[in-house]
Write a structure and sequence with these properties.
Helix content is 36%, strand content 16%. With 256 residues, the chain is an alpha/beta fold. It has a single domain, classed as NAD(P)-binding Rossmann-like Domain (Rossmann fold, 3-Layer(aba) Sandwich). It is built from 6 helices and 7 strands; from the N terminus they run βαβαβαβαβαβαβ.
Length: 256
């Protein structure tokens, strides 16, 4: 299967949140493909990541490691300037940025546990960072084809929310979904071959999910490599006609 529908050349790809978890697994899987020419691995500590260094030893100049905090617009401006020096177009961008209980965020179970600080921390990474990444990368997504993916979460679905809890996380992902859907409308005008997708990767064995893995049904906790493969498969399946939509790892649509 082609990496992207309608792609007739080797792909240039950017992964944000590339130093661990699903982001690192995506870098590994994409570099193993013959139809991927370049992977830009972006993370706050991409240049000092041992795992990314090991990939760089194996794949050489096909992997470019760039330090960038996507919550910082000056850092995003510098990121784009660096990429434009070597590349005019990105075929695929995947944001794996997200927190649940790190960096000041909390997985609140009740209204009494809500704080402004945790709301702001959660939204800064889960909502603001991915859409600001898309904003700044727009000059690199104007040619055909181009796909932007952000990892969302089923708990961000308002229609599917029956259990409550996780106020900040749910709301931040719901807001991300709205921003992505809105951006998909603008991008379709700028580039009819552009695709914007929100993807729920399933519960994956990463730092984000570790405190809550005891509640995951047997067989429903995925290895990062499995999640990465499913994401790549979804990217190859859904093109411009599906832009602005929300999909689960098993290729089933999720209600907003």
């Amino acid at each position: 299967m082609r990496l992207l529908p309608e792609l007739n050349s080797d792909a240039r790809v950017l992964i944000a949140g590339a130093s661990r978890g699903i982001g690192l697994a995506l870098c590994t899987a994409l570099l193993a493909r013959n139809d991927v020419a370049q992977v830009w691995a972006v993370a706050r500590q991409a240049s000092t990541s041992t795992e990314l260094a090991e990939l760089a030893e194996r794949y050489g100049q096909r992997l470019k490691r760039l330090d960038c905090d996507a919550r910082d617009e000056h850092a995003l401006e510098a990121l784009v300037s660096t990429i434009l020096e070597q590349c005019e177009h990105l075929h695929l961008v995947i944001s794996t940025l997200g927190i649940l209980h790190q960096d000041g965020a909390k997985a609140e179970k009740a209204l009494s546990q809500l704080t402004l600080a945790s709301l702001q921390a959660t939204f800064a990474t889960n909502t603001f960072a991915p859409i600001l990444l898309l904003k700044h990368l727009l000059p690199l997504l104007r040619k055909q084809p181009a796909t932007f993916v952000a990892l969302s979460a089923r708990v961000g679905s308002i229609g599917d929310n029956r259990l409550g809890g996780w106020y900040s996380y749910r709301a931040s992902k719901a807001a991300l979904n709205q921003l992505l859907h809105t951006a998909s409308i603008e991008l379709k005008r700028l580039n009819p071959a552009a695709t914007v997708l929100a993807i729920h990767p399933g519960t994956t064995d990463t730092q984000l999910s570790q405190p809550f893995q005891g509640n995951v049904p047997e067989g429903q906790l995925f290895e990062p490599a499995f999640s990465a493969d499913r994401i790549i498969e979804l990217v190859g399946t859904h093109g411009p006609d599906d832009s602005g939509s929300f999909w689960a790892w098993d290729n089933k649509p999720i209600v907003w």
